Amino acid sequence: MRSQVALAIPPPSLSPIQALYGVLAKTRLYDTFLEYTRPYIEHVLNEPEAAEEEAQKLLNDTKFLYLLNMLSQDAALTISEDKLRKAYGYIRDRFKEFDIDIEDSMEIILEHDLWRLRQIRGNFDKFTTMLLNFAAENPEDAYRYAVTLTALTLLLITSLGAKTREKLESIANETRKLTDELELYTLTFMAALEENEEENKAVTTAGSAEELRKALETA
Q1: Which of 19, 122, 141, 205 gives 20 to 30 Å between its CA and that of 190?
Q2: In the chain, how long is the greatest CA-to-CA distance?
Q3: How far lies 30's CA from each of 27, 41, 74, 157, 161, in Å?
Q4: By the 8 A CB rule, do 17 and 109 touch?
Q5: Please, are residues 9 and 65 in contact by the beta-carbon 8 Å criterion?
Q6: In angstroms, rounded to a whole number, what is the distance separating the alpha carbons of residues 190 and 26?
Q7: Each residue of 22-44: pLDDT tens digit?
């Protein structure tokens, strides 16, 4: 079932900061997205550690997958790098207000989202082919990538409604857990698009994002 879901997700799917910007901008499409995901967001607000579980539920929801498709089309037409950076700055400053350091994790998310946006705008055919091949050859990893993105999206949106430092700290902790994994995916996809044999070998042997970064630097 998970493999089928992974293959059903239309690449490129929703990215966390893209979703955050849309929610902040209060566009009609994102209002629909927010209304549909509200029960999941409320659950994550009460239990941030449930973000991955709620993400899996959403990814098994056909209507949500269609909504993702519409959102990805909207992003291709309307989202800019400046808009992503604006949303990134907003959420980073919100955590800073409560003296919570989440900058490294937010940088990883922003790097991922900016890179994806650049591929969508300037390298779409090659990028989508790479993602489809990745899903076909590694369905469990593709599903996990979708869960990671969706869980991070829920966490970032949930942070907007958090009223206490304790709640924001819990959200930050769950975000940190997921961003190391997201960084691995970003580096993996970058290497795949480069079609560098040494880099692809590094991807298969690295056990962490830091190991992969070092391996790619020497490849």
Answers
A1: 19
A2: 49
A3: 5, 14, 10, 12, 16
A4: yes
A5: yes
A6: 32
A7: 888 888 888 999 999 999 999 99
Give the number of other Cβ atoms within 10 Å of residue 118's Cβ: 12
**What does the angle CA 207 – CA 209 – CA 215 come to, to the nearest 5 degrees?**
75
CA–CA separation, 80 and 175 (whole Å): 24
Show pLDDT as tens, one digit a residue, over the chain (219 residues).
454 444 444 444 678 888 888 888 888 888 999 999 999 999 999 999 999 999 999 998 988 888 888 887 887 788 889 999 999 999 999 999 999 999 999 999 999 999 999 998 899 899 989 988 888 888 889 899 999 999 999 999 999 999 999 999 999 999 999 999 999 999 999 998 887 555 555 554 545 445 555 555 555
pTM: 0.85
d(CA 136, CA 128): 12
DSSP category for residue 10: P
Residue 99 backbone class (left: φ over 0; alpha: ψ -120 to 50; beta: rest) = left
Question: Residue ranges per domain, the chain?
Answer: 2-218
Q: Are 159 and 95 in contact (CB under 8 A)?
A: yes
Q: How far apart are CA 160 and CA 127, in angstroms?
A: 32
Dig out the tokens for 68 from the structure. 């993702």
Nearest-angstrom CA–CA distance, 54 and 157:
13
